[in-house]
Design brief:
9 helices, 4-stranded parallel β-sheet, 15 strands, alpha+beta, 5-stranded antiparallel β-sheet
């Protein structure tokens, strides 16, 4: 599968003149990262429907200094897939943006969603999640306690602030020698610990996409053989999926627990023991896999325009 062109290659119809049908175009910034070449980015599929609606799109790294954000009518957080390494500067940038123009999704929801403790909040609102322990640091004693707590032979540990499966580890019982890298990474870093659910490799992980609270499309993600990471960058296989009624109901329930409508949301679920368990609700910079669903870029654009009208 070919990689999408780099951010600098973005071509925007009408952008050079800043006009559309003889009228000035509104301006929207898509936040991205400085080095996008190693990632699959599909947000450029929004350029044409935005342009048809009279909007010029410009991609900007979130870390770009001295941007006049007020020159944009709106800013949408998109492929900022390095923010986890610079959380406070990233949130400070979003705070500056929101003080000057419309930000999607909002600073408040991005701040909440940036730490995986949000899963504990959703569990408290009745959403079934993958069983989890939240720890301030990791050592061999806590790993042994995790195996005993979850009654499982494999555990997953990952940062509370993370993306792209960075610093995610699968630990096996009885293999203490293989725990050293994980304990070194999390010696002074908070983390989430979960049992490794076989459904991730056997059946796959399901992602359902919502724009303005409206269901758009669904995909199934399966890791490459011998891996557990489902991202394309790690060899994961992506396929369009017809969501079953029970899968839709589980995703709808998780979305409703947020209590407010977002421009975009991705709900990641895994099957386990006949139930659907929430893995993540992605509200900051999820890949929205527009290429998997014809019409989804136009759907996203319609919802965006509707939200912009509700000032």
């Amino acid at each position: 599968q070919p990689r999408a062109p780099a951010a600098g290659a973005l071509v925007i119809p009408g952008a050079a003149l800043g006009v559309h049908g003889g009228m000035s175009m509104a301006r929207c910034a898509f936040l991205t990262l400085e080095e996008p070449l190693d990632f699959y980015i599909y947000d450029r599929l929004l350029v044409e429907p935005f342009a048809a609606a009279g909007w010029e799109v410009r991609e900007l790294p979130w870390s770009e200094p001295a941007v006049d954000w007020s020159s944009f009518e709106a800013v949408i957080v998109r492929s900022t897939w390095d923010y986890q390494n610079h959380l406070e500067p990233f949130l400070q940038t979003l705070e500056r943006i929101e003080s000057q123009t419309r930000l999607f999704n909002s600073l408040a929801i991005c701040r909440w969603n940036s730490n995986k403790r949000y899963l504990k909040d959703l569990e408290g609102r009745g959403v079934p999640i993958v069983p989890s322990r939240w720890l301030e640091q990791l050592d061999s004693r806590q790993i042994e306690e995790g195996f005993a707590t979850f009654q499982d032979q494999r555990l997953v540990v990952k940062p509370l602030v993370g993306a792209n499966s960075d610093n995610a580890f699968v630990l096996e019982a009885g293999n203490a020698g293989d725990w050293e890298e994980a304990t070194a990474v999390f010696r002074d870093q908070p983390l989430i610990m979960q049992p490794f659910l076989p459904g991730i490799c056997d059946e796959g992980e399901y992602s359902l996409f919502y724009f303005g609270g409206e269901f758009s499309h669904a995909i199934r993600k399966r890791p490459a053989a011998g891996d557990f990471r489902v991202q394309e960058e790690h060899g994961g296989q992506i396929a369009t999926w017809e969501a079953s009624p029970s899968l839709r109901a589980a995703a709808d329930h998780a979305l409703a627990a947020l209590g407010e409508t977002q421009l975009y949301a991705r709900v990641d679920l895994v099957g386990h023991g006949g139930d659907w368990l929430l893995m993540e609700v992605e509200l900051i910079e999820p890949s929205l896999y527009f290429e998997q669903c014809p019409g989804s870029p136009e759907h996203f654009t319609r919802v965006f325009l509707d939200l912009m009208r509700r000032r």
